[in-house]
Specification:
Blueprint lengths: L16 H22 L5 H33 L4 H24 L2
Protein name: AtpZ/AtpI family protein
Keywords: Membrane, Transmembrane, Transmembrane helix
InterPro entries: ATPase_put
């Protein structure tokens, strides 16, 4: 009887460091997917509407300042003194209100 040579026991394979990075990347991708599913990105139309609201929140106070300043300038014959001042005040009010609105919405 001939004896078959015994096969050596397989060595424990050394883990490939690339496998750890691949596993970690897969976990991160799954976590991002779960986060996206629980808190989805608003649609484009909603973002566009938000931009419109911000634009009007800035423009309307500026225009009101211009109209009030023009009326005062004509009434008091002061050139553009009140127009310029109230345009700047309207811009400050509009930018402040837009900033408050942005920080009140996510």
């Amino acid at each position: 009887m001939s004896k078959k040579p015994e096969k050596a026991a397989p060595r424990a394979a050394r883990p490939d460091p690339r496998d750890d990075r691949l596993i970690e990347a897969a976990h991160q991708a799954a976590e991002r997917k779960r986060a996206g599913d629980s808190n989805p990105e608003p649609p484009f139309s909603r973002r566009l509407a938000q931009i419109g609201v911000l634009g009007w929140a800035i423009v309307v106070p500026i225009l009101l300042g211009l109209l009030a300043g023009h009326w005062l300038d004509r009434l008091l014959s002061t050139g553009i003194l009140f127009s310029a001042g109230l345009i700047v005040a309207g811009a400050a009010v509009g930018l402040w209100s837009a900033w408050k609105w942005m920080h009140g919405h996510d």
